[in-house]
Design goal:
The structure holds two protein chains of two kinds. By secondary structure, chain A is mostly beta strands. Chain A contains one helix and twelve strands. Chain A has one domain: Immunoglobulins (Immunoglobulin-like, Sandwich), CATH 2.60.40.10. The longest helix of chain A is centred in the last third of the chain and has 22 residues. Chain A is rod-shaped and about 90 Å long. Classes of the chains: A mainly beta, B alpha+beta.
């Protein structure tokens, strides 16, 4: 059964009651953009033949989600715990959504989707383009400076 | 013979003009680009083309089910659907993440859940890209939602990557409607 949680974010596909895929854990809990996160999840019951995680990066300020969703295999690391590291790709992402899929008895089952907000970087931003000119503004200021020097020289003469 | 002062002033004028163009050339919004025709599959399994909607202003919403901003975008598109006649404006929401595993069933369930959870009927054309991601590669390579407004002749009049609110879309649609 597919349940779409519209205001909660997106499609959460679940097998209903008794879902074997447990709660997804992300370390660190508030990772930075471009950092590497460790994702782990417990899966109970029948051992899955394959476990994968989808990591989607979005920018909440511009309201865009990037198409290059990472689909990474999750190996079994300890008793019923599947874990993997994923390196985030987008410097301006403000949150990620994570969904684990597991092939159990030949059928793919999906976890609920977990949203993780990304922390801001030490310089106080997360790489967002705030719409102000950067390179262009520098060129403009330099141009004004040079012009003022030329005008001043002319007046001195 | 040119006076040296005038020469300098002339140089300064040209220099400032160059800098002005350099600074402001990156700030203009692209309009009147020529759009390509493309085909997509509707939820009824019918093949449609953009050119089938020529004669109307078309709002193309390249979206995905697994995209939170795309869900919010639906509410803004609903306002367009309510405020414009289908004779004037056609809305096309096309799931472009088929290459990421999204299916017609997921899209249909999303439409159902809008009705069931928030009592919003998404009453416009929904469709899917092909598995190769032809529309995604052409129109939504930077992310979803990617929005386009075409004039009645099928030329791209407006494009925007990311969520956009009703006011901006409506004023652009109004411009596009007047243009033709």
């Amino acid at each position: 059964m597919i349940v779409v949680s519209i205001l909660g974010a997106t499609a959460v596909v679940a097998a209903g009651i008794g879902l074997p895929i447990g709660t997804i854990t992300v370390t660190p809990s508030a990772p930075a953009a471009l950092s590497t996160v460790t994702i782990s999840v417990p899966i109970s019951g029948e051992a899955p033949s394959e476990v994968r995680v989808n990591v989607e990066e979005c920018n909440g300020n511009t309201g865009v989600c990037y198409p290059d969703i990472q689909n990474v295999s999750m190996p079994l690391t300890s008793s019923s715990i599947y874990r993997t590291d994923v390196t985030l790709k987008h410097s301006d992402a403000t949150y990620i959504t994570i969904k684990v899929v597991a092939k159990i008895n030949g059928a793919w089952q999906e976890s609920s989707q977990k949203k993780v907000n990304l922390s801001v970087t030490p310089d106080g931003n997360n790489g967002d383009d705030n719409g102000t000119p950067g390179f262009e503004l520098v060129v403009f200021v330099i141009a004004i400076g040079i012009s003022l020097i030329l005008i001043r020289r002319k007046r001195v003469k | 013979m040119m006076i040296p002062g005038i020469r300098k002033l002339r140089f300064l004028f040209v220099f400032f003009l160059f800098i002005f163009l350099l600074v402001f050339s990156g700030c203009t919004e692209e309009k009147n680009d020529t759009g390509d025709d493309f085909s997509f599959t509707t939820l009824d399994g019918e093949m449609k083309r953009l050119s089938d909607f020529y004669g109307k202003v078309v709002v193309l919403d390249c979206m995905a089910v697994n995209c939170q901003p795309c869900m919010y975008q639906m509410f803004e598109l609903k306002k367009i659907s309510e405020n414009y006649s289908t004779d004037d404006v056609a809305i096309l929401s096309i799931d472009v993440w088929v290459s990421n595993g999204e299916t017609a069933t997921m899209l249909q369930d999303m439409i159902k859940e809008f009705k069931n959870q928030v009592n919003v009927t998404l009453d416009w054309t929904f469709g899917l890209d092909d598995p190769e991601g032809t529309i995604e590669n052409r129109y939504a390579s930077e992310g979803v939602p990617s929005l386009y407004i075409y004039d009645k002749n099928g030329n791209i009049y407006y494009s925007h990557v990311g969520y956009e609110d009703y006011a901006v879309l409506a004023s652009t649609i109004d411009e596009a409607l007047i243009k033709n």
